[in-house]
Amino acid sequence: MKTKIFFLFFLIFSTNINAQNIEGRVLEFSSDDLIKPIIGANVYWENSTIGTVTDKNGFYSIQEAPSFPATLLVSFIGYEVSDMQLIDDEYIFYMSPNLELDKVDIIGKKKSSNISTISTLNLETLDNKELEKAACCNLSESFETNGTVDVSYNDAISGTKQIKMLGLDGIYTQITQENMPLIRGLSSSFGLSFTPGPYIESIQIIKGAGSVLNGFESFTGQINLEYFNPDSPEYFYYNLFGTAEGKLENNLRLTKRNGKWKSNLFLHHSYHDVEIDNNNDFFLDMPHTNQVNLLNRWKYETEDIAAQFYVRGIFENRVGGTLDDAPFNYDVEIENKLIEFSSKTGIIMPDKKGKSIGLQTSFRIHEMDAQYGDKLFEGIQKSMFLNLVGQTFFVENTDKLFYGTSFYADNYTNRLDKLNLSNAEIIPAWYSMNLFDEKREDIIPGVFSEYTYFYDKIFTLVVGLRADYYNSTEKLYTSPRFSLKYNPSESTAMRFSGGRALRVSNFISDNISLLASNREILIANNLTPEIAWNYGVNLTHCFYLNNREGTFNIDFYRTDFENRIVVDIEDQGILTFTNLSDIPNYSSFANTIQFDFSYELFNRFDVKLSYKINDSKTSYLGGPTYDFSSLLETPLLPKDRALINLAYSNRDTDWLFDATCNYIGKSRIPMHELITTQYSDPFALINCQLTHKLNDFDFYCGAENIFDYKQENPILSFDNPESSSFDASLIWGPVMGRRIYFGVRYKLSN
Length: 750
What we know:
By secondary structure, this protein is mainly β. The protein contains 2 helices and 44 strands. The chain folds into 2 domains: 1-110, Carboxypeptidase-like, regulatory domain (Immunoglobulin-like, Sandwich), CATH 2.60.40; 222-749, Maltoporin, Chain A. It has a 22-stranded antiparallel β-barrel. A 6-stranded mixed sheet has the order 9-10-16-17-14-15. Strand 11 and strand 12 (161-165) form a beta hairpin. It is globular, with a radius of gyration of 26 Å.
């Protein structure tokens, strides 16, 4: 007899950060209370060709449904499903012989953005439907509808953007691609523009101390990208995007399947070559850009082995600065070249229940040449990353252990020079960076282990420890971390987390936007790795009101630095880098509290609200003479932020409307003779988009910054770029005003 059970999933992707597939087991629960795997059970989505069978241990892995709502079916001749459990993000089906059961229907819908009550970590997932609510050109523009990640301009010249999370710069957030390093080193300033939005299937945002499996660099959390998988039903995708300012983007995604081999090819080209100077300061508001971006992904699967390989190549050129006919001259040109090979290989040990081993590798060469006026920066980074991870169960579905070893190797060649060198006085204990040439090799081997304990569906504890050796300091650094989740009910999760993180700064490339000024650069001797502790508490509650789903979330996180590379721009005309630990009575911390609320107000009309308060302060020397220190608010960081997002679709879901209002609170401005106020004014930005779906086409248009808000005089002393007061790096608001855009997507699916 063939029978089936129906389930409709609400949070289908938020449960597994390491894959986009639904995973679990099908087990026999016999009359003698023995639990055995069912081999060859069918697991498939109703009314689709997407399905799989269980292996010799009863395990299955099935890709997501092509659309939702959806029904997952499990069948095996002579058996019927008697129960289903969600254990450690896996859907476990229990089957018994010859049971007379009626089918079970659970009704709901998939959300494009959700905060999980299942994951032990504080995990928020944004899928591609959420990313399509705004003009998602690249990763830096993927958080327009999200309250956790703040986005702002780096400077008024390069056109690049930066993110902030939990009151700290984006360099303190670990950004990964499918849990492998993505943005670090030379890519820290421009890497957000290297990942086009159409490449991304989902983004997972983890707040607080992350898993030790993914590295030692997670201070405030992790942003992990999942690219479109070769298993995706879409085999052809094309997106054309354009703006009224003359920027054009082309995105192409192709999928090929041939037996055990599957492949994705991603192609991206963006181009802008129109002079725009809306504020009449003779500087380009938007640089000329030309980026060619290619990613080829291969996947190989058998019953016991799963392997993926990635090859990526990027070329980007940015040209900004003064107009061709400007009465003065200040040139900006930035060129990035990057090539990368990475892989993931996993081996299942069928004779050892619950055991597997995986290897991650990444090899990268990144070259960057940048000119900001008379400053020239040349950088080359050669990187290698290896991560070997094993998994085993002590007690199946109760105790789980991860263990492994990692190896980071970065070879840097950094040179900062001036077109016209001047004889600068060397200050004791410091050296002038009018001319600087650095060759550095960072080698960091490490070992780690992480233990997970589950108690029923109520309590989960994760305890992890890393030990990493850094060759430059010849020291061993430990990174203990823990996460605890308590579920008083299925709809409520309480989380507690804490952990230590380590980061080796490449301080010039981390802060390259500060070269857009005439500051003298001073660097303290013997800069050491950055170390910090992060602690957090979270409450997430899902509820139903009037048969509609809603979510309430509240977070509090604190980051305390043991050491930090303090970037001091408090003295006009001077930029200093020094160890926090070298400052008397030093302190550096960041506190963030955030409230989130989402609810389907009425049919097909979703409302999302978010409010965040930042309290971030750091000690500064007050100058290179070590005569005093002071604790100041982090400059250019908004004290608070609020977000309102509205999303509506008609009954046929072929017309979609999205609107987002971001309120950005005041931020402290460093002292400058041309700035008379200590704090910036708060402001609001409103974006909206209209999408029409017609057969295989999506037509969309929208506007960003509808009311055309711009920071007044973003370039200080713009009419005298050679003066000591020239500065284009003190940015707290938009440089560009209103942006009108349009686009079309064409998709073909199996």
